[in-house]
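Today's session is about reading a structure prediction critically. Students often jump straight to the picture, but the first step is always the sequence itself: look for stretches that repeat, for charged clusters, for runs of hydrophobic residues. Only then move on to the predicted structure, which in these notes is written as discrete structure tokens rather than atom positions. Here is the chain we will use throughout the hour.
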Amino acid sequence: MTEAARSGSIITGRNLLHIWREPGALISHLCTSIMFVVLFAFVIGGGLGALYPEYLIPGMLGQNAVFVNIYTTVGIAYDMEKGIVDRFRSLPISRTAVIIGRTSSDLAATAMNIALLSLCGLAIGWRIRSDFLSAVAAYGLLLLFAFAISWVGAYIGLRCKRLESAQSLGIMWVFPFTFVSSALVGSQYMIQPFKTLAEWSPLTALCDTIRDLFGNPAPKDFPEATGWAAQHSALYLILWCVALLAVFVPLTTRRYRTLSG
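Below is the predicted structure for this chain, in token form.
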């Protein structure tokens, strides 16, 4: 195990212990997710047919994969404001260990949220109608996308000078990003330019891909998605994950090293 991985695993454990001792943010986010599931499945989606919950739950799982950005942005900004990052910098550890530890612990928290949200989905009638390996692939893609997005959050957190700024910036782009997608409803129902933005959104690619892997069809009256991104959603999603990691891992590492200089 390299020094960065060893130190990162220790910091991951520290962050997870912090979540265990102060689970308020995790519980609040989970309760919000459950509230959205109930609201969209039984209130707003009541007229969309009996299959809508099976369309909705993969979209909600995809949204949870994006919300990891908020954890990471706020978590890094909090550690910086409280001087914890300065204490880490005084230790003989890899400069990337703090970022690796943060993104890994937030990925673990997201995995817990996804698991609990899946149980909530089962309670309202959602079912995985594919085989075991397809379901594993769907959850694997969810975690891959969450990990890639967490590096975006890490970079934003390192750019913020105050915790309040990190909280605002972490949320500011997440909600438009999650709603202008096929997470809750097909992009075909949106007006321009939101329709085009949703069709080419990586979150749309994620939601469409995991719906296929889970075997969850869209309601019968939903028009079929068209275009290259819709027809190659899995490939498009993986390309986005690779691009996000290729851009934000070096950017975030360079930013942290600049702070450490």
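Discussion point for the tutorial: DSSP finds twelve helices and no strands in the chain.
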